[in-house]
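Sample pair:
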Amino acid sequence: MKKTLESVTREFAEVRTGRAQPGLIEGLHIDYYGTPTLLKQIAAISIPDPRSIVIQPWDPSAIVEIEKAILNSKLGVVPVNDGKIVRLSITQLSKERRVELAKVVKDMAENGRVSL
C-alpha cells in the first residue's frame, strides 16, 4: 500500500502546473555515455523564480543530451542553452490545457484507487 501511495504521489508531482517545480524534470532519463541516468543524478536543479527552472549539469558535455530528453518529454517547454546551464520557462496554462490536465489527473487518481 505504501508503494502504491508513493507511486501515485510521484505521478502527481510530474504533472505540469503553471508553477515551476523540480519534480517536473527530476524523473527524466538522460542517455549519459550510453547509460540511462536520472537527470537529478547528473545535474543540480534549481528554481530561481516561480516561472523558471535552471539545470546545471556537473559535466557540461551532457547539456545536449539534457536538451534532447526535455524536448522528447511531454512537458511542452523549450530548453534554452547558454553553454553552462539549461533554462526552462514555464508558461501559463491555457483553459483547454487545464481541462486536459484535469482529465489526466482524474485518470491518475482512479488508477491509484484501483491499485490500492
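The mean pLDDT is 85.
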